């Protein structure tokens, strides 16, 4: 493909959106974007491509941009999901995301990626990765695009305070003061991954300008349980059905792998169910999970299979025979829970005990007492209340010229690229409106 044809394709992509066609020649607009994650980067690129006369300062506390992008997908970068809807999000008002997702669809995101030289690998699961299979390539291309557009990037710069004097914003760090911004974007996320300098300063800034926020909580995170069995089950992993109970009521069911740990449970099924579990923990509700090790076998049939197993080899210990259907770490703990001596022979297990074993394997209940915290969480729930944000522009309803994008808002996505897709989409809307 010739360079002219490529440039024309890029032009057509951005021209396809309903941009304001105002002539910006000689128009001086100064913008600060706090947080150089996916949302902040997208806002900067979008705004600069529409209005080249806009002066953008992009700030981040880290030594480089896109640190959470680099960490996503275990370094492979689960950059998006090809099938996204508001059903993939949680928050006080999940439908808030609908307009952004319609204005910046996955197809639009794919075109954007091509415009910066990034090709995508769309999996059958709808998860999307860079074709390079490296998160670093994503960040490198975003960095090159920002530099080409003359966005001013300030790394290792932690913003301490924002003030608005008349119609201009001033920003303060420990060492410097940046003055005279017409617009400010808060896109520096929340507390997930503090090792990447994540913090909740965005909530402090929001509060200063009259915003309220909902309590934050770790999301997509391992769960601590009151029952840890002395660490005897640590390392056991199995695909199971996991049910979430809130105050005794069934709230959610998810199938996937469960990993027992020294603190409780993890694994993909647990990360998925942790979103609601963590939210209800933050409200001090009773949270329990029930693990079904054999979801494709009903309890009665499972009992019959155990009985048949014990009858076939009656002179062996029951604990040894059980290792033919569950992990050798699970078998002794299972008998202990059912109050059966570990030395009991299969022939001496009665019908009531078999029923108890089958029930435990079908409903292995654990009380959730906490999560592994923000340090182990992939995302944060809670944040700035979306009722106070214009869902079409992402501008504050409390303060003209103040915008929010990404995780700092009370929106959190499911596992599988949904959080990044919301970051891209919200950043796009912000960028579009920064330039107008």
From TrEMBL:
Domain of life: Bacteria
Keyword set includes Transmembrane: no
Record domain RsdA/BaiN/AoA(So)-like Rossmann fold-like: where: 30-432
Pfam family, one: HI0933_like_1st
InterPro entries the UniProt entry points to: BaiN-like, BaiN-like_dom_sf, FAD/NAD-bd_sf, RsdA/BaiN/AoA(So)-like_dom, RsdA/BaiN/AoA(So)_Rossmann
Swiss-Prot/TrEMBL cofactor(s): FAD
NCBIfam families in UniProt: aminoacetone oxidase family FAD-binding enzyme
Protein name: Flavoprotein, HI0933 family
Organism: Malaciobacter pacificus
Origin organism lineage: Bacteria, Pseudomonadati, Campylobacterota, Epsilonproteobacteria, Campylobacterales
């Amino acid at each position: 493909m010739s360079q002219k044809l490529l440039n024309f394709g890029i032009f057509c992509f951005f021209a396809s959106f309903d941009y304001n066609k105002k002539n910006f020649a000689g128009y001086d607009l100064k913008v600060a974007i706090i947080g150089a994650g996916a949302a902040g980067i997208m806002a900067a690129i979008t705004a600069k491509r529409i209005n080249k006369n806009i002066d953008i300062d992009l700030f981040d506390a880290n030594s480089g941009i896109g640190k959470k992008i680099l960490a996503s997908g275990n370094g492979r970068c689960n950059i998006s999901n090809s099938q996204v809807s508001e059903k993939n999000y949680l928050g006080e008002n999940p439908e808030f995301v609908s307009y952004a997702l319609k204005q910046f669809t996955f197809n639009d995101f794919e075109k954007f990626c091509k415009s910066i030289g990034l090709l995508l690998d769309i999996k059958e699961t709808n998860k999307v990765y860079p074709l390079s299979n490296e998160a670093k390539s994503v960040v490198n291309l975003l960095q090159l695009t920002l530099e080409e557009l003359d966005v001013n990037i300030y790394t290792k710069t932690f913003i301490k305070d924002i003030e608005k004097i008349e119609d201009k914003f001033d920003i303060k760090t420990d060492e410097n003061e940046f003055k005279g911004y017409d617009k400010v974007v808060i896109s520096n996320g929340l507390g997930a991954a503090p090792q990447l300098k994540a913090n909740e300063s965005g909530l402090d800034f929001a509060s200063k300008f009259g915003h309220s926020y909902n309590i934050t909580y770790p999301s997509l995170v391992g769960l601590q349980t009151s029952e840890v069995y002395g660490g005897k089950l640590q390392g056991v992993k199995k695909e199971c059905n996991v049910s979430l109970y809130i105050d005794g009521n069934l709230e959610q069911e998810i199938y996937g792998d469960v990993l027992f740990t020294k603190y409780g449970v993890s694994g993909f099924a647990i990360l998925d169910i942790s979103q609601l579990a963590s939210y209800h923990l933050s409200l001090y509700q009773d949270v329990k999970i029930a693990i079904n090790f054999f979801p494709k076998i009903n309890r009665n049939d499972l009992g019959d299979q155990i009985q048949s197993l014990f009858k076939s080899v009656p002179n062996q210990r029951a604990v040894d025979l059980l290792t033919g259907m569950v992990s050798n770490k699970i078998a002794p703990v299972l008998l202990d829970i059912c109050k059966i001596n570990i030395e009991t022979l299969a022939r001496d297990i009665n019908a009531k005990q078999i029923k108890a074993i089958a029930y435990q394997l079908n409903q292995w209940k654990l009380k959730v007492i906490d999560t592994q915290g923000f340090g182990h969480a992939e995302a944060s729930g809670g944040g700035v209340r979306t009722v106070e944000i214009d869902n079409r522009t992402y501008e504050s309803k409390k303060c003209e010229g103040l915008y929010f994008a990404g995780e700092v808002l009370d929106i959190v996505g499911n596992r599988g690229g949904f959080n990044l897709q919301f970051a891209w989409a919200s950043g796009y809307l912000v960028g579009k409106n920064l330039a107008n």
